[in-house]
Amino acid sequence: MLLQIAGHEVRLAHDGPGALDAAAEFQPQMVLLDIGLPGLDGFEVARRLRSAAGTRNAVLVALTGYGEEEFRRRSTEVGFDGHLVKPVDLQALEDLLAGR
Fold it and tell me: In CATH, what number is assigned to the domain containing residue 19?
């Protein structure tokens, strides 16, 4: 809701397959993606988004409860551009949205 209030166009999915479907239809510039998704985890969703023409260049940000170094390392390996841990620091999110 905060992103919508700030004027961003937002799509929401509740599982990995739904995230892939929404991204294929919407072709977003940025994807905020939880790692612990049902159906397909966020790592697999990120891999598939990176291989799809419409989302290959999107900014992928893990927005997750998994903040341990192992998860951060894996998120970088699969192509995430950022890794934010819940509860998210709003300034960090705004910086990512602004390209900083």
Answer: 3.40.50.2300
Is 5 contained in some domain? no
Per-residue H/E/C for the chain: CHHHHCCCCCCCCCCHHHHHHHHHHHCCCEEEECCCCCCCCHHHHHHHHHHCCCCCCCEEEEEECCCCHHHHHHHHHHCCCEEEECCCCHHHHHHHHCCC
Task: Report yes or no on 37 lying in a domain.
Answer: yes
What is this structure's pTM? Answer: 0.92
Q: Which domain holds residue 39?
A: 12-97
* Average pLDDT for runs of 10 along the chain of length 100: 89 97 96 96 98 95 96 96 92 83
